[in-house]
């Protein structure tokens, strides 16, 4: 090769530099920060819409109501991005072909379909390719405007993920009625268990300033079909029910309304005392009853479609009906009666445990609630966490599912990763949600899945609900990391239809968020799908639980002992001693197994049959217990800790292969977070191994590296400013 000297060399060097810049721009096509979520409408697989012959650039859509305008706006945004030019909107029914949106009332093109659309309910929709006057036409039809908006989002998703539109026929009806995000946001902007900055709600400037982000929040939720938002923390301040704060909530409700989202509020049970100046909050006191009725009237005057209240009562220090020797049913019914005339609901949480530490905290919600079946008003849902303890990396399904057939049970998932590494660990929660929903309660024989309890089909409830504790804050990524957006996304999709597959949902999310290129989608989906199991492995393998550090829950703390309550310690849960480890919840122990239907109880009770993934949840097991792998329990535990760390290595390697195929800023951000996760997974593994080894005195299996520090080092680590701590 000729040396590049002289003037021609200069020129070549300039050309080369230009090419490199061009390549760099090409590779990092758009500098992205994740703020657009899965609604980027950017990187379509070359969509040759001309080929389909639909002419998507021509849109006939009504624009009279706010929801109709929201549908148009979304289409404008989406099609401009995906097709390269904004569509042309036609007001009236002149002409045919292209895209036709509407309801029987809003569109003469859709009016003849009235009978057919009746079967779609209030929120369902239909996408259909058909011919009108000989021209190919794509219909987005529904009974109500909101269904049309959902249909538009669905269509845009199909386009973003590269689905063939030719011959399209889609009917979608949400399987669950209330699909709600619970924000644990305090009025001062702090988010309990929040790892994505401060609250999105700027209570100080509300109701006058309506930040455009509120609209984007509503768009993102509507794209998934989420139709409710509890604005404030379950550890609620009475102040959120004051007139001034109700006006602020009303402003948010106004912004959300066109997107089909109702607002709800966390209600503090003692509000009649704190706000109303009453001497009591006793649910049987007529003055208290009047106060709640008046409060409901006041709320509905400001927010005519207010959804209702979410209540945490007599749990972790919150006031409740038991303060007056009344039951949870009496408490819930008090609020339900106040809301009933307005069509509101009460979501009464079953996350309760007695102030005096019980033999087994896992039993308590069931013990308190199962007997209340049938005692609750029709507009009460009991909101139950997916497992009996508290959003652990893995729990068996909550025994209340299937045990209260006369009561709608609302699923409560945690989207924010309080117990799963906060925002820096890449842990896709789709598989956790899927596992819980597919669990078989056997309440009415085999196939009585948790999903069927939750969607109301098992017991014939019209009222049904799923809630997710939100992971949203004012961080540019909304969720604190790029991959945590996938958990918001998966929650919403599963709330719409709890039978969908976590893998399919992940594939859609990746295609929309990063690229529809199969060479990008496949490796990322694979990496996501194993990520939850990896976190279980490096944190709490084989059914271990509640072993994180005290208070903030950041990092390992299997040694946590003492303090105000035994059931806030780790030793209460793992019960490790020289002979073995695990919580005996079998019929020989706390007998929590008997809260499940007999078929399930038998399996969990039998150390030979219980799934190994739940072994130490239900049994106290000798360290040398032979596992299915052939290893003794202790060796298996260490093997799994290490396997979890190795999985993070593999995610890092996969991510590295995607350099250049993902825009630079997001690639770098994820890579940096994976490095944090790698270090913290190792920390979890080492600290856990050091601790349990100090108890059992056993050697490490061959080939396993000893922790680099003595146990005292791990025990001494302090993180006074770890984010999200309850307060
Ligand atoms: C626990 C959280 C705590 C919540 C509580 C709840 O640590 O901050 O207040 O759940 O759900 O997981 O009420």
From TrEMBL:
A molecular-function term among this protein's GO annotations: xylan alpha-1,2-glucuronosidase activity
Domain Glycosyl hydrolase family 67 catalytic: 159-478
EC code: 3.2.1.131
Record's GO cellular component terms: extracellular region
Key words of the record: Carbohydrate metabolism, Glycosidase, Hydrolase, Polysaccharide degradation, Xylan degradation
Single Gene Ontology BP annotation: xylan catabolic process
Catalytic activity: Hydrolysis of (1->2)-alpha-D-(4-O-methyl)glucuronosyl links in the main chain of hardwood xylans
Record-annotated Glycosyl hydrolase family 67 C-terminal domain positions: 480-703
Residues spanning the membrane: none
Limits of the Alpha glucuronidase N-terminal domain: 37-155
EC top class named in words: hydrolase
Catalytic site positions: 316 (proton donor), 390 (proton acceptor), 418 (proton acceptor)
Subunit-structure text: Homodimer.
Homology family: Belongs to the glycosyl hydrolase 67 family.
Protein name: Xylan alpha-1,2-glucuronidase
């Amino acid at each position: 090769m000729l040396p590049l000297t002289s003037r021609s060399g200069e020129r070549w060097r300039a050309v080369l530099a230009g090419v490199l810049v061009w390549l760099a721009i090409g590779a990092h096509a758009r500098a992205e920060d994740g703020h657009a979520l899965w609604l980027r409408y950017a990187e379509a697989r070359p969509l040759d819409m001309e080929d389909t012959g639909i002419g998507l650039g021509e849109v006939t859509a009504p624009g009279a109501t706010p929801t109709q305008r929201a549908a148009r706006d979304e289409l404008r945004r989406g099609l401009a991005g995906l097709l390269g030019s904004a569509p042309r909107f036609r007001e009236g029914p002149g002409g045919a072909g292209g895209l036709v949106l509407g309801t029987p009332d809003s569109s003469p093109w859709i009016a003849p379909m009235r009978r057919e659309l009746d079967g779609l309910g209030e929120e369902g929709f239909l996408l259909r390719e058909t011919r009108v006057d000989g021209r190919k036409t794509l219909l987005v039809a529904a009974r109500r405007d909101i269904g049309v908006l959902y249909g538009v989002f669905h269509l845009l998703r199909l386009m973003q993920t590269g689905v063939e539109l030719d011959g399209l026929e889609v009917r979608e009806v949400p399987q669950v009625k209330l699909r709600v995000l619970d924000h644990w946001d305090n009025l001062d902007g702090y988010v309990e268990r929040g790892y994505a900055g401060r609250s999105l709600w700027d209570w100080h400037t509300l109701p006058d300033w309506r930040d455009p982000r509120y609209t984007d929040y509503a768009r993102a939720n509507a794209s998934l079909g989420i139709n409710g938002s509890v604005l404030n923390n379950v550890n609620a301040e009475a102040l959120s029910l004051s007139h001034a704060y109700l006006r602020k909530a009303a402003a948010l409700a106004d912004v959300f309304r066109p997107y089909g989202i109702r607002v709800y509020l966390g209600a503090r049970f003692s509000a009649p005392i704190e706000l109303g100046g009453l001497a009591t909050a006793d649910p049987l006191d007529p003055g208290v009853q009047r106060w709640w009725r008046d409060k409901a009237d006041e709320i509905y005057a400001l927010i005519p479609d207010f959804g209702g209240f979410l209540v945490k009562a007599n749990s972790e220090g919150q006031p409740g009906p038991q303060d007056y020797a009344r039951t949870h049913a009496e408490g819930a019914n008090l609020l339900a009666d106040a809301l009933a005339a307005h069509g509101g609901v009460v979501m009464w949480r079953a996350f309760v445990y007695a102030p005096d530490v019980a033999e087994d905290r896992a039993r308590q919600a069931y013990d308190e609630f199962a007997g209340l079946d049938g005692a609750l008003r029709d507009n009460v849902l009991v909101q139950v966490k997916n497992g009996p303890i508290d959003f652990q990396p893995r729990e068996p399904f909550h025994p209340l599912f299937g045990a209260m057939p006369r009561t709608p049970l609302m699923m409560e998932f945690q989207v924010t990763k309080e117990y799963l590494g906060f925002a820096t660990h890449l842990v896709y929660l789709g598989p956790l949600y899927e596992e819980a929903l597919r669990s078989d309660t056997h309440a009415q024989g085999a196939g009585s899945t948790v999903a069927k309890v939750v969607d109301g089909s098992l017991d014939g409830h019209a009222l049904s609900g799923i809630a997710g504790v939100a992971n949203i804050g004012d961080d540019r990524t909304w969720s604190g990391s790029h991959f945590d957006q996938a958990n918001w996304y998966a929650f919403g999709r599963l709330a719409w239809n709890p039978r969908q597959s976590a893998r399919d949902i992940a594939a859609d999310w990746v295609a929309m968020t990063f690229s529809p290129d199969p060479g990008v989608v496949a490796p990322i989906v694979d990496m996501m799908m194993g990520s939850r199991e990896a976190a279980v492995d490096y944190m709490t393998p084989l059914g271990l639980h509640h072993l994180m550090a005290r208070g903030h829950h950041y990092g390992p703390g299997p040694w946590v002992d003492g303090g105000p309550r035994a059931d806030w310690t780790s030793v209460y849960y793992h019960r490790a001693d020289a002979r073995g480890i695990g919580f005996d919840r079998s019929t020989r122990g706390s007998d929590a197994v008997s809260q499940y239907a007999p078929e399930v109880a038998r399996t969990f009770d039998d150390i030979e049959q219980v799934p190994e993934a739940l072994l130490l949840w239900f049994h106290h097991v000798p360290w040398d217990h032979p596992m299915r792998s052939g290893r003794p329990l202790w060796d298996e535990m260490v093997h799994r800790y290490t396997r979890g760390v190795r999985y993070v290595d593999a995610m890092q390697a996969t991510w590295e292969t995607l350099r250049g195929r993902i825009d630079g800023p997001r690639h770098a951000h994820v890579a940096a977070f994976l490095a944090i996760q790698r270090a913290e997974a190792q920390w979890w593994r080492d600290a856990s191994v050091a601790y349990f080894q100090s108890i059992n005195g056993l050697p490490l299996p061959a080939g396993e590296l000893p922790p680099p520090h003595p146990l005292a080092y791990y025990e001494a680590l302090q993180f006074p400013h770890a984010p999200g701590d309850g307060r």
